[in-house]
Write a structure and sequence with these properties.
The complex is a heterodimer of chains A (225) and B (228). Chain A has 225 residues and is mainly α. Chain A has helices spanning 3-12, 23-55, 59-71, 74-87, 94-118, 122-130, 135-165, 178-186, 190-218. Chain B has one domain: MetI-like fold (Orthogonal Bundle), CATH 1.10.3720. In chain B, helix 2 (21-55) packs antiparallel against helix 7 (131-162). Chain B is elongated. By secondary structure, chain B is mostly helical. The chains are: A mainly alpha (225), B mainly alpha (228).
Chain lengths: 225, 228
């Protein structure tokens, strides 16, 4: 029997579809940690990005973060999050994974939010100011809406990266779909490794497509593009 | 694997570094070697594919779709998938790494060729250049800075991804990160992370220098405002 048919047999075996170590629960864990982290990162990175984009102050923070963020391997971020979590006595599993994924999600969201707001036509901002809008109103009614598609690209990049890296959470005793791959490696079970790999790839592609759909909704309706 | 978690363990023990200096240098070289092969082979694939996609516009969408699909698959999943065929080998690592370079490189090759001014192309044709001469003497040299920009991004990305191949027994500096995770020992993690970042910065600077050295014309004469 080839490895692929073994993996398909593994995927369709009802035993693997129940319990805490079953596929549905692992998918749930994977989606839960990814969603929680991206939302938490967005809650910090979007307001900060908006503020920096609107005022133009602290631009170097964004530039540095996005450059450094690209050079640090996500595997290294997970590695570094482990001793941090242990030092803070947060234990294994959830917290090291959360810290790593959070650090990973911040740069793309922050950079895109900043770029989106900074890229709003200054004439429009002038016009809005001429119409008597206050800074807060300009930010909320003009800049946020025009920057929304670019911010969404940042959220999409962050989400796909987070879903991909959440696989590595299994290394720090976290749950999620990485369990099948890491445990499969440990016991040399090719069917489980391949089955897990197929599930992770499918989830990453679903995330990409889903966030692409959300991104379309975020485009301003008046846009001619 | 689960040892006691000691909250008093210092973040960084310098004596570990001096004790393991030989291994560190060895893995640093291994890391650079794995990266060079991946980016080299990736370029050898991406340049002809990019040229083809540029000339046959209908091929561009399916080519970037396939490369984008490969790029979206999480690295651990791809390596895991490949090990079931090619085992825990360098070949497995390289197949995975090369496939991650393709999207970045192909996009830049096409963008670079698209940036060649139409007038320049027309002039070369009028001077009797064959399509092959046009490609090698005009289009590729003019597209070179954009292609190099792609190679730089791909190199930095691959240096990061090489660390993940530690899970299939390779990994260069990633070996230290994995070892640190498995033993709850932060010093090798810090060493692996810091050195791979430094390697990425060094590679980026070297490639930028190479690009400048090979395209002296791009430096001396800045393009006029608004020119394409």
């Amino acid at each position: 029997m080839s490895v692929v048919s073994e993996a398909l047999a593994w995927l369709s075996d009802p035993v693997n579809w129940s319990g805490t170590a079953g596929i549905p629960n692992r998918v749930f864990e994977h989606v839960r940690i990814s969603t929680v982290t991206v939302l938490a990162a967005a809650m910090i990175a979007v307001p900060v990005g908006l503020l920096i984009g609107h005022t133009g102050k602290g631009r170097f923070v964004v530039v540095t973060l996005s450059n450094v963020g690209r050079a640090i391997p996500s595997f290294a971020i997970l590695g570094l999050a482990l001793p941090v979590a242990i030092k803070l006595n947060l234990g294994l599993g959830f917290w090291p994974t959360f810290i790593a994924l959070f650090a990973l999600a911040i740069p793309p969201i922050l950079t895109n939010t900043y770029v989106g707001v900074a890229g709003v036509d200054p004439d429009l901002v002038e016009a809005a100011r001429g119409m008597g809008m206050a800074d807060r109103e300009i930010l909320r009614r003009l800049e946020v809406r025009l920057a929304a598609p670019v911010i969404m690209v940042g959220l999409r990049t962050a989400s796909v990266e987070v879903v991909a890296t959440a696989t590595l959470a299994a290394l720090v005793a976290g749950g999620g779909l990485g369990r099948f791959i890491i445990d499969g490696f440990a016991v040399r079970d090719d069917a489980r490794i391949l089955g897990g790999a197929i599930l992770v790839a499918a989830l990453a592609i679903c995330t990409e497509l889903f966030m692409g759909g959300v991104e379309k909704l975020a485009r301003p309706r008046t846009s001619t593009a | 694997m689960m040892l006691a978690q000691d909250t008093r363990e210092p973040f960084f023990r310098p004596e570990w570094v001096s004790r393991n200096a030989d291994r560190i240098v060895e893995q640093l070289i291994e890391h650079a070697y794995l990266t060079s092969i991946a980016v080299g082979v990736g370029s050898l694939i991406a340049i002809p594919v990019g040229v083809y996609a540029y000339r046959h516009r209908r091929a561009y969408v399916p080519v970037t779709w396939l490369a984008g699909f490969l790029y979206t698959i999480p690295s651990l999943a791809l390596f895991a998938f490949l090990t079931t065929y090619t085992g825990l080998t360098t070949l497995t690592a390289e197949i995975g790494l090369v496939s991650y370079t393709l999207l970045i490189l192909i996009r830049n090759v096409v963008a670079g060729l698209e940036g060649v001014p139409r007038d320049t192309r027309e002039a070369a044709r009028a001077m009797g250049y064959t399509p092959r001469q046009l490609l090698w003497r005009v289009e590729l040299p003019l597209a070179f800075p954009v292609i190099m920009a792609g190679i730089r991004v791909a190199t930095v990305t691959i240096i990061g991804l090489v660390t993940v191949t530690s899970l299939i027994g390779k990994g260069g500096l990633g070996k230290f990160i994995l070892q640190g995770i498995q033993r709850f020992f932060s010093t090798p993690i810090v060493v692996g992370a810091v050195l791979s970042v430094l390697l990425a910065i060094l590679a980026d600077v070297l490639l930028l220098g190479l690009q400048r050295a090979l395209t002296p014309w791009a430096r001396s004469r800045p393009r006029p405002e608004g020119a394409r």
